[in-house]
């Protein structure tokens, strides 16, 4: 056969270009859809008993010296052996005993798209945190409804989020300081906001006993949704008004109270422990608690997203129990300022106490019109970060992001079976 004439070839090229353009248009639409990832397999190798810990550590108000995104960029990429070490974990049981479990990781090449390349943007100073933009969700009508109802309080003073009917995701530093377990981790409990009559007086009243009638309030639910999702853009004036009047009302309503549930066991990745990760410990500031009893509250699924900044709004949300508003659930949202594959830096207003909150975003389920919220990270807290590895520290609010690997690990902890965790 001779050469193919140009006049035949040309339309094919044009067609190909057209197809590419069409595909690109589709991907624009896909930006609003949860991507589907094949995740690596994290499998248990073996479990050995360890001596019981001392439970001598005390909570740290602030973490410092974290090797930040730029600092981390200079570290060598962890090898498979390293990763298997970091993802191996300790389990601490209710009775104070603990075990160590080593893991193997398979299918790591599924996630080559995850590089340690991070986009960088202009730096902010702390003052740029600006006015406090947190919302107190004190009205039971909202705080005991999804998505706020997934937020829980950890007895060591942190927050957490329900990721299964009886598992809570929180920050590792709420349980362990890197060297030992916190004093309060021995009798760890999780508090779920009580949904009781708004008229009940105080915490100890009879309101606690009888299940309060939940108000129907369809309208209220929508309001929350609107507040949650659109609070930032447009209509500031109207929103501000609504917020103020709600706050005023909340003063009159009863103090929030919790229903406490004991924790059966807690799992922490070895990567969090001192001397294991060499600059990457902040990436492993997460832990999973298993409750003795399922609290019958809807949980939020985990999700994996390659870049938050590239999302249409680039905005994250989280709710927790900030120290300065005791007992109240505090909700906020903000845009991510900087991200690496493992960390998210942002200037969401947050006080200690909100550490461990689940950071979520809302996207569409593939093939569906409905929006779905998923947890993509764990709020770690305010940190002084070593930006360039030269000892110069800068402050950020940091969240640990759920990578495909971490998804695999957390999913395995929750399900106890890695075959159920092959796709995020
Ligand atoms: C503590 O609890 C774990 C898990 O339930 C159990 O395997 C272990 O035997 C218990 N140890 C003691 C000393 O009771
Ligand atoms: C990461 O950055 C390097 C150098 O800037 C580049 O060569 C590489 O292609 C990047 N990787 C990805 C996955 O973007």
Automatic annotation (TrEMBL):
> What InterPro entries does the record point to?
Glutamyl_endopeptidase, Peptidase_S1_PA, Peptidase_S1_PA_chymotrypsin, Trypsin_dom, TRYPSIN_HIS
Q: Where is the composition biased (Basic residues)?
A: 196-217, 238-248
Spell out the SUPFAM superfamilies in the cross-references: Trypsin-like serine proteases
Q: Which residues form the Peptidase S1 domain?
A: 141-184
For this UniProt entry, what is the primary localization, expressed as one broad class? secreted
Signal peptide start-end: 1-22
- Gene Ontology BP annotations: proteolysis
PROSITE patterns, sorted: TRYPSIN_HIS
Annotated segments matching region Disordered: 192-260
Q: What is a single cellular component term in the Gene Ontology annotation?
A: extracellular region
Q: Hey, which family's this protein in?
A: Belongs to the peptidase S1 family.
Q: Which protein, by its recorded name, is this?
A: Inactive serine protease 35
Which organism is the protein's source? Lates calcarifer (Barramundi)
């Amino acid at each position: 056969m001779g050469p193919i004439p140009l006049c035949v070839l040309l339309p094919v090229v044009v067609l190909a270009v057209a197809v590419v353009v069409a595909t690109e248009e589709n991907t624009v639409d896909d930006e609003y859809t949860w991507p589907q990832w094949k995740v690596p397999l994290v499998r248990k190798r073996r479990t050995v008993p360890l001596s019981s810990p001392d439970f001598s550590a005390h909570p740290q108000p602030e973490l410092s010296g974290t090797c930040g995104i730029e600092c981390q960029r200079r570290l060598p990429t962890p090898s498979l052996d390293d990763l298997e070490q970091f993802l191996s974990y300790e389990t601490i049981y209710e009775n104070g005993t603990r075990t160590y479990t080593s893991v193997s990781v398979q299918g790591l090449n599924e996630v080559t798209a995850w590089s340690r390349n991070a986009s960088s943007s202009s730096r902010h100073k702390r003052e740029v945190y600006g006015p406090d933009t947190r919302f107190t969700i004190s009205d039971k009508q909202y705080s005991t409804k999804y998505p706020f109802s997934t937020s829980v309080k950890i007895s060591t003073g942190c927050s957490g989020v329900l990721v299964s009917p009886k598992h809570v995701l929180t920050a590792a530093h709420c349980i362990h300081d890197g060297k030992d377990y916190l004093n309060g981790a021995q009798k760890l409990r999780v508090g779920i906001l009580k949904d009781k009559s708004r008229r009940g007086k105080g915490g100890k009243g009879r309101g606690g006993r009888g299940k309060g009638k939940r108000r129907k309030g369809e309208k209220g639910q929508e309001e929350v949704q609107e507040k949650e999702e659109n609070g930032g853009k447009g209509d500031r004036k109207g929103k501000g008004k609504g917020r103020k009047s709600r706050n005023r009302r909340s003063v009159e309503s009863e103090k929030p109270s919790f229903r406490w549930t004991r924790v059966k066991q807690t799992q922490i990745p070895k990567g969090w422990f001192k001397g294991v990760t060499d600059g990457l410990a902040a990436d492993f500031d997460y832990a999973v608690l298993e409750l003795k009893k399922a609290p019958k509250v809807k949980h939020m699924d985990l999700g994996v997203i390659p870049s938050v900044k590239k999302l249409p709004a680039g905005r994250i949300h989280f709710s927790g129990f900030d120290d300065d508003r005791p007992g109240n659930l505090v909700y906020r949202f903000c845009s991510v300022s900087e991200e690496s594959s493992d960390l998210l830096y942002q200037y969401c207003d947050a006080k200690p106490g909100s550490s461990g909150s689940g950071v979520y975003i809302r996207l569409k389920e593939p093939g569906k019109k409905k929006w779905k919220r998923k947890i993509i990270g764990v709020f770690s807290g305010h940190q002084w970060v070593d930006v360039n590895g030269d000892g110069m520290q800068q402050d950020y609010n940091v969240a640990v992001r759920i990578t495909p690997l971490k998804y695999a690990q957390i999913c395995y902890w929750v399900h106890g079976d890695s075959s159920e965790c092959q796709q995020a």
